[in-house]
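Researcher: I'd like a structural prediction for the single chain below. Treat it as a standalone chain; there are no partners to consider.
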Amino acid sequence: MRIETTDLADVLVMTPQPFRDERGLFTRTFDTEEFDAAVGVVGASASFTQDSQSRSVAGVVRGMHGRRGRGEAKLVRCAHGAVHDVLVDIRPHSPTFGVQQAFLLDDNDFRHLFVPPGFLHGFQALTEVADVCYRIDRPHDPTEDIGVRFDDPELAIAWPVPITVVSTRDRTAASWAQVRAELVG
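Model: Treating it as a single chain, here is the predicted structure.
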């Protein structure tokens, strides 16, 4: 597995090395030893407690979502189709606070992201159907949810295709200015 750093502090991109033959392919999507070595903490992989999956149709935007408190670490990958995945660093003392970066996740190269606690996350489905899988390090607590509008003008996220569907929750989320003020006190 190839593991690379990103422009966002502590975010990693992991790209499996699939074996392809006439049958199709086989790939390892997660390896505890390689993950622990990449984050520099033996046993870090054992902290993941939940796997979830979403299915979206072309143009759907989900996000921008985060967590208060200790946050939430997650591994994100697209198991079927392709998504434009966006992260925004919301850690007030981070050198990349407020910075966003986008990634293409798809079922062709199997790249996936390690997202440490303290990030907003969202994505747009680029294909007819896109299945996104999440491996999360703690149970969901809705009282800790943070949401920023997917179309917040200050963040100005460049969604690559026309937006087809956005949930009511995401359309009515707070502005980045409101969330930023809450985070920095």
